[in-house]
Amino acid sequence: MCPSLKRNSSRSRSRNRPGSFWFSSLSPSWLSALAVLLLLWLYLYLDRFGYAAPLPINGSGPSGTRPVALPSDPELGNLPLLNPGPPTSRPPPPPPSSTDIMATPNPPKASKPAVTLRQGAYVGSTILATSYFPRPVDAFRGIPYAQTTAGQNRFRPPQPLPASSQTFDALRFGKACPKEGRIAPDTGEDCLNLNVYRTGPGLEGTLRTAKLPVIIYVHGGGFNAGCGIERNMAAFVSWADDDMIGINFNYRVGALGFLPSALTAKEELLNLGLRDQQLLFEWVQENIEAFGGDPDNVTIMGLSAGAHSIGHHLMYYARAPKGAPFAKAILESGATTARAVLIPTHPRHLIQFEEFLAAAGLGSVPEAEVFTRLRELPLQTIVSASKAVWDRYIESVTWPFQPVIDAANTTGSHSAPSSLLNSTSPSSNFSTSTHHPPPPALIPDLPIHSWRQGKHLRIPVLTGYNTNEGTIFIPGGADTNADFRAFFTGLIPSFSAADLDALEKLYPDPVTDPNPQANPYRDVPSGKGRQWARLDAAYSHYAYICPVLQTAHFLSTDIENQHSVHVYRYAATAQWGTANHGDEAPVVAHDVASLGGGRLPGLLAVADAMHGAWARFVVSKAGDPNPPSPEKSDDGVVAWPTFLSPFSPSADGVVREWTGTVRRGETPAGETGQLLVFGEGNDERVATLRAGQEGVSGVGGGGWKEWFASLVGAGKTGLREGTPAKVGMLSEVELAACRFWWGRVELSEGLGNRGIERERAKL
């Protein structure tokens, strides 16, 4: 095993930083000239070395960043993609055998990393150590985990791959799943593939004797966009002190992955994108030992829709006969109680389904022929129709094509079948010999009901949120109190006038406030309406912050849960001077290329702290993100306290505060409401974005463009590095907001009877 870069001194992470380059002391004028030359070099060599343009991380928000992945050999850029070739590029489609699943654990040593699986042998590449990748990483890109979803597999559950003795190149990313209304060259229905990144063996090439911890990233995108490579897992693995394996993958989004309707329920085709994710988890269990991974130490990590998905899996696998194919979970800015989880026959979904069929030219097709015709349509027609419906609901944030209560994939009862097992912990004996059909329901009830009934896994969880989660979703021009009320009336039709009045008092109007100087929502960026900051706070609490804290609350007050919960808040500011939804993504990955290329020392310190904590959580079987020292580690992380809910457990859903500091309904055990705050006071990205990147999102960074902008902006004053990490407390504003939103979660999550009647009236 190669020696790891342990943080045994304050220089352990700074040795290879781009910020330590020889030109760091040059004057701004020299830096500007150098930047022009670098820009010319980038244009000449960008495509050859595997860089790509930013990819969207959110359906309605700005773009995130595609990971930077430098191949070890320049000629790799001339090799074809793994999957989009002729039919011989992947195993043929016959059904697989249910036996002989396990793969060869130790393939022969070769000049390039190779692995032998039941579905075939794969030859990868090695990303060599650079200032962006301090340790070499073995990369296996574009490996399929299911058959193509085209043709008769469209609008069907994912199909496992058959056995094969062929050898395939795993050198380039596979196709991403279709999204955004057009078919790009790197997208297609043969998109269910993954990328595996493993800490490289180093110069010694020694064989490992211990199995490696595994982390799987589930991408975001509002269930309508996104792809696995939005999170740079190569960087995540390379910067980790300990050897590990990182995985990202694609699943179906938009109408192809989530098309709720009465007909879809009747055909048992709901929540296909979540089924894709579950097949990937099973694939990892069956194959990860071939890469040297530990199937009993798997962490799943998701952002936004990826975190929402993980929340559903926490509940599903508590009932699954085979137990959970993962042992720990990280949920960034997402939870099952976020926004709305409706029944497939809810009027909103019925309306959107009819709009989709009309946009696809199938508005008058008999019900019995709908899915047959949908499978025959050109892919562009499907994707364009999906985008047309999506565009109608962006401003109201009442998005189409979402996970729904499947209730045994029928239109019957919402109650979970009593025959399902109620396992409360992940199984170390996860069966890999047979591909079992899924239990009858993936989401059998409103998630809030499952939480209250204790129908969820009890495993280590790390979760948190960003200070300004709502900025990229809310309408920028909202200017009056009427605009504020109209937004939430459309978002939650079941809200009564009394609910809206209470909402107004909780978030006072900055325009009519008799004491405007004390109003926290008075300051807005140029070009935004006067209600912008107010809407951001209210929507942030409604859609992200309070659902995240609700997950932490239920886990920390569950007397049967013996595992810790850790909560964070990300506070480093970017576009609009706010900490926006998804801004933490490149920081967690320690993706230096997306963090100013090393020219933002404060943000790199935040990345050291945040990535270090995430990596320790992955490695520790107990899910402990804390450093070995009880005080402080070399990456800047102070001791991270376990989250203890400031609210008492309540089966009836009424939120009550503790009178003291108590845990799980028993005796005092610590201070409640503590969390770790990352990047407080850091505003370096605000300045770099203004130095030529106005309009580039803070979501996921600007990639090489932001790095270039940071060079031109070098030497500008006003940059604050802030504090990498510090212990904080939930504020009174957050506590009051959660009292309000938790008390109305059924109205929001299921839209209630009033909302259903109001929607039905539109039919």
Notes on the structure:
This protein has helices at residues 28-45, 233-239, 262-266, 272-287, 305-319, 347-359, 370-376, 379-392, 447-452, 481-491, 497-506, 532-557, 585-589, 601-619, 684-690, 703-712, 732-742, 745-749, 752-760; strands spanning 114-117, 120-123, 125-127, 137-144, 167-169, 193-199, 212-218, 245-249, 293-303, 328-332, 461-466, 565-570, 647-648, 656-657, 674-680, 723-729. It is an alpha/beta fold and 763 residues long. The protein folds into two domains: 46-339 and 399-459, Alpha/Beta hydrolase fold, catalytic domain (Rossmann fold); 465-760, no CATH class. Helix 12 crosses helix 17 and helix 15 packs across helix 16 (703-712). The model is unreliable at 1-24, 43-110, 409-436, 657-669, 692-717 and 752-763 (pLDDT under 50). Residues 413-435 have a biased composition (Low complexity). It comes from Lasiosphaeria hispida.
